[in-house]
Amino acid sequence: MDRRRVNSRIADGPDYQPTTTTTTASKITTSKSLFLVLIIFVSSLMTLALVYNQFPDLEESEKPHVKLPWDLEEAKQLGLVLDRYKDKYFYEVMFGVFVTYIFLQTFAIPGSIFLSILSGFLFPFYLALLLVCCCSAIGASLCFFLSNLLGKKLVRRFFPERAAQWSKAVAKHKNNLLNYIIFLRVTPFLPNWFINMTAPVIGVPLMPFALGTFIGVAPPSFVAIQAGQTLHTLTSTSDAWSWTSVIVLSAFAFISLIPVLLKKRLQEKFD
Q1: pLDDT tens profile 35-85
Q2: Sign (positive/negative) of CA torsion 136, 138, 140, 143?
Q3: How far apart are CA 144 and CA 133, in angstroms?
Q4: With left for phi above 0 and alpha for psi between -120 and 50, is residue 111 left, alpha or beta?
């Protein structure tokens, strides 16, 4: 399909229903949008630095391990350091994980899976699950707003065909968007960063997006947090997955569609 035609359909085609925030954001020039995003990014880095400075004094051997984990080994080393201070500085440790997780989600930076596993290692299961779900929903919502500033230009340039396909799916499920977002979060059909960036561009409202994210990330987070309880024995993130995990996620995905199927049956019956 011709790229110009696809871009036009994403921007103002029949499948695209712009929200008020998207319309307002479109009035801001690209240079101003970039400047705002840069300010937000620098402010976020300063917040991370402030949280780090509030942490108790570390031993010299521990300092190199207190950083964003990019792989499982770094997550293990960070977990061992934080575990030493967790009992005495519980809220400082939890707030540090909270802020870092939101930072990664807001700017679509890889690594949040390691923080999910780390949360399972550091905190009681249900607290870790609530923490990860809240961080995912807040971070995705902040990414949603940032995408309102720059998302349309990026999507039209790099993902026009894929965004057009999702725009059709959103229009098809516009009366069941909450269940649809939950289904997408549970299943791997679309990457989370793509959902966060594209959702405001094609007109997904914030409320079903945020709530669907909070509920939808729970099942996969359940698996990661459970794996975190045996962090010291993991050799790769794939060790967290099993046939039981796949079956559980498939069951949750099916459950998320039950209200939609029932609604369709009722509509067909009364129509």
Answers
A1: 888 999 999 999 998 888 888 888 888 888 888 888 888 888 898 899 988
A2: negative
A3: 16
A4: left
Q: Which amino acid is at 99?
A: V
Angstrom distances, CA of residue 61 to CA of 67, 69, 137, 232 = 13, 17, 35, 19
Six-digit token string for 112? 């949040």
The residue behind tokens 């498939």 is 250
How would you label 17-45 residue by residue, b for 16+ Cβ within 10 Å and e otherwise?
ebbeebeebeeeeeeebeeeeeebeeebe
Long-range contacts of the stretch 244-247 (C-beta < 8 A, 24+): none
Instruction: Give 140's Cβ-side CA count (13 Å radius).
Output: 32
Task: Please give the Cα distance from 180 to 57 (Å, whole number).
Answer: 46
Note the pLDDT of residue 16.
Answer: 41
- Domain limits of the chain? 3-270
DSSP state of 206: H
Amino acid at 269: K
Question: Taking the mean position of all CA atoms in its chain, how far away is CA 114?
Answer: 13
Q: Against a cut of 0.70, is the pTM above it?
A: yes
Q: Which amino acid is at 189?
A: F
Task: Please give the single-letter amino acid code of residue 246.
Answer: V
CA distance 30 to 269: 50
Helix, strand, coil percentages, rounded to 5, for the chain:
80, 0, 20
Residue type at 63?
K
- 252-212-220 Cα angle (round to 5): 45
Q: Which two tokens stand for residue 258?
A: 């039950």
